[in-house]
Specification:
This protein is of the alpha/beta class. Helix content is 27%, strand content 18%. α1 crosses α9 and α3 packs parallel to α4. It is globular, with a radius of gyration of 20 Å. The termini are close together.
């Protein structure tokens, strides 16, 4: 099967790209290569791109997508991208959710522009659950209409990463566009994996982290959280026997007075190490993050698309490629 060429916008550190191409191992399971190859990747974050370029043969360009000259992009058959979602997120209430009125919310138009110009066979866009209700539910239909007007039949589904072998309850809207109707007719979103294949936090935590004093919260932080815990639902300790709650981009600054997931060792609270966070996101241990500072690692990991979930999505598209 000839490989489908892929252009990746907003690629971050490469979770979506790794899942698309496959060919990696995670928790003892092999995720075989998919018939896709990345021919172009771009992100405006120099630290994410540094991580990306440490891990992929094809290199990512550091650039604002608005500055891309379309003619610079090689020929491609699929466009992928998790367009910036801060403005659509349920948690980004301060300032209130501006959705598509916010400059960052407008970046999906860059995807649309490229689709109109190049007309690739497929596209996959990823975003937070909050996009469905942003602007009192007005933003999402506009986004779908823009993608449709670019010449695509568009489907979308809310997927939970924990149902695809990722040890994290992370809900994301996956929008897929088809230029050709016969491709759409063959396509189904990936089936959830069986319960025996699902992963929990206990599968990925690292014993040594329980002895790393830099990961533990101070007594003062714990006392402050305890004072308001009853009425605030804070100090969200995770169970080893369940998937972790969603991890975010500010993991380095995790607070006990927030909804961030934390872990309890005896009677002490700790945050997750960067490698544990990467495992919670389903990155293989072979994926290198230590070319940037720990704060940058946490941010890149928290913003990423879980590679294992993305592998299932990309793999479900391969049915369209069979003759």
């Amino acid at each position: 099967m000839e490989k489908i060429k892929v252009a990746s916008l907003f690629c971050g550190c490469g979770g979506m790209d790794l899942g698309t191409i496959g060919g990696f191992s995670y928790l003892g399971k092999e995720y075989k290569e998919n018939p896709f190859e990345i021919v172009y990747a771009v992100d405006n974050d120099e630290y994410c791109t540094k991580i990306y370029n440490e891990n992929f043969v094809h290199k990512c360009v550091v650039k604002d997508v608005r500055d891309i000259k379309i003619e610079e992009i090689p020929q491609f058959d699929m466009l992928i991208g998790g367009f910036p979602c801060q403005s659509f997120s349920i948690s980004a209430q301060n300032p209130p959710r501006l959705g598509y009125k916010d400059e960052r919310g407008l970046l999906f138009f860059e995807m649309v522009k490229l689709l109109k110009e190049r007309q690739p066979r497929f596209f996959i866009a990823e975003n937070v659950k909050g996009i469905l209700s942003a602007n009192k539910g007005k933003a999402f239909p506009i986004i779908i209409k823009e993608f449709s007007d670019a010449g695509y039949t568009v489907v979308h589904k809310l997927l939970n990463a924990s149902e695809y072998g990722v040890p994290q309850k992370r809900e994301r809207v996956i929008i897929i566009g088809f230029r050709d109707l016969e491709d759409l007719l063959k396509f189904h979103y990936p089936m959830k994996v069986g319960y025996s294949e699902r992963k929990v936090l206990g599968d990925v935590l690292i014993e040594e982290s329980n002895y790393d004093e830099t990961l533990f919260f101070s007594e003062k932080a714990v006392a402050g959280m305890m004072a308001v815990r009853a009425k605030m639902n804070k100090g969200r300790t995770m169970s080893l026997t369940e998937p972790c709650n969603t991890i975010s981009a500010h993991l380095a600054k995790v607070s006990l007075n927030s909804t961030d997931p934390v872990y309890m060792v005896g009677d002490r609270y700790r945050r997750f190490s960067a490698r544990e966070a990467a495992r919670i996101q389903s990155f293989p241990d072979s994926f290198a993050f230590d070319c940037v500072s720990q704060i940058r690692q946490y941010k890149a990991i928290g913003n990423a698309v879980p590679p294992v979930m993305m592998w299932h999505i990309a793999n479900s598209l391969t049915v369209c490629l069979k003759k």
